[in-house]
Amino acid sequence: MSAYDSVVFIPAEAQFVQNTMFQFSQNQAVANNTDAGSATPITQSERLKALDIVGKVRKQLTDPGHAPIAFTEAEAQLMQRLYVQYIQVHGKPQGDIDWTYWIHFDDSARQLVINVIRKVGGIMPNMPASTYPQGYNPFVRL
Question: Would you say residue 65 lies in a domain?
């Protein structure tokens, strides 16, 4: 039996999954923007998977006693791909802003996303709390 065959989210995780999957299904990022200022096109199949996920999670969110959620392999893979990307791109320098300006997840938000990835069958270690990515800062303050 795979991890995604029987998933129980805590309310915060369920709310996160419902919100992000709904936004994804609408082809929108948070506040209708990506960092580049535009939403990335998604396929009809991805949209339908996201809406199926929203429907399943909403049942668990509205009725905490609801049985565990059984996701399909394709739904679990969609969530794993999106949430791993979400973790990896958070913390990059934003556009033309100074190299030392970073957007960070706080530790609890990062851990919540990692918990969701693990519950749907993904393997992800706890990320270090230091700035991601690590590396040489070419723009030293004078």
Answer: yes
130 inside domain: no
Please tell me the pTM assigned to this model. Answer: 0.73
Instruction: Say if residue 93 is preceded by a cis peptide, omega within 30 of 0.
Output: no
Question: What is the overall mean pLDDT for the chain?
Answer: 76
Tokens for 70? 């059984």
CA distances from 99 to 77, 109, 136, 137, 138 (A): 33, 23, 11, 7, 8
Alpha carbon distance 138, 134 (integer Å): 12
- Structural domain includes residue 94: yes
Number of domains, the chain? 1
* pLDDT band per the 50, 70, 90 thresholds, residue 131: very low
> Residue 39 above 90 pLDDT?
no
